[in-house]
């Protein structure tokens, strides 16, 4: 297995820049996820590593070898696509063995690798069948097996679960994570699904318009988003936002909007003082709006709101609340009794807020022990 590095890599299609000045290192045996909306450049990045697209500029390395001019079949990577691309006229065994046969592997070595991969994936009993006799999940396992038998330096996954139903996606997420643990291999995974990214990746790369917005562990990206885009993209339900400004009054710094006036904590003041008077955005995660009173701490602020929509999910309830012209989503315990139209005083955890400012809408509170 090997480290993968991209150094100042860009890709243009005519006048369109799909990937811009990307610098990224994927560690040996790491599971790294590229995530972002459609058109953000994540698949183009994967295709450049695979050799299916040529980088317009910059350098790509696998281990110590620069691979920009190396043919895809010689890059020692295995790609698993969204469509399984199985040969319909071949048995599952032959589908998995095909690449090895083309590389002139001995029959005994091919048989050993195919049966080893089939055992790992639990498809040994399917080896004599054809693809049209398998379910979508079984076909996906075969596509994985075809990649495993190659023993590549890195696995590249291009939205491999998007064609599966919701229940099967959950199952396959767990199986892919276990596969990574078993193989101890370098894996680079592309998805637009932030739940997949959060549950599978050792680290996440959030992309927008061909540029990296943030690289970090799932916990870092969720709790310390680098900017407004990352904050809104990662999380379900998404983070609540309120546009307003900071003002200094009564010996404190306050966030004020059309309908809110919230006091910042003393430890947050140093990070935001130079933005007093500027327009900015307050961010609050749904789980940081509490229905029940929290005693013994000054970090919670009471805010009267009105219940507009209730969405019971069994294990929790999503509640849409309004205060004047602004709307917020909160995650309440199912034991909290609410009904549409009622007035509900909530407790906002000011230690968990985020503030975004500047032309790049960066998070003022990241690295300051809050947010």
Report on the structure:
The protein has helices spanning 42-50, 92-102, 107-121, 136-148, 166-183, 194-200, 218-223, 228-233, 266-272, and strands at 4-13, 16-26, 31-35, 57-62, 65-66, 77-80, 154-158, 186-191, 203-208, 211-216, 240-249, 252-257, 261-263, 279-284, 289-290, 300-312, 317-323, 326-332, 343-349, 354-357, 362-363. By secondary structure, the protein is α+β, with helices and mostly antiparallel strands. The strands form 4 sheets. Strands 6-7-8-3-9-10 form a 6-stranded mixed beta sheet, with helices on both faces. A 6-stranded antiparallel beta sheet has the order 13-12-11-14-20-21. A 5-stranded antiparallel beta sheet has the order 15-19-16-17-18, with no helix packed on it. The two termini are 37 Å apart.
Morphology call: elongated
Strand residue percentage: 25-35%
Which structural class is indicated by helix and strand composition?
A: alpha+beta
The residue ranges in which pLDDT falls below 50 over 5 or more consecutive positions are none
Question: What's the story with the biggest beta sheet?
Answer: 6 strands, mixed
The number of E-state strands comes to 21
Number of helical stretches of at least 4 residues: 9
Mean pLDDT: 92
* Computed Rg: 25 Å
Could you spell the SSE succession in H and E letters? EEEHEEEHHHEHEHEEHHEEEHEEEEEEEE
**Strand order, sheet with most strands:** 6-7-8-3-9-10
Give me the oligomer status. Answer: single chain
* Helical residue percent band: 10-25%
How far apart lie the N and C ends? 37 Å
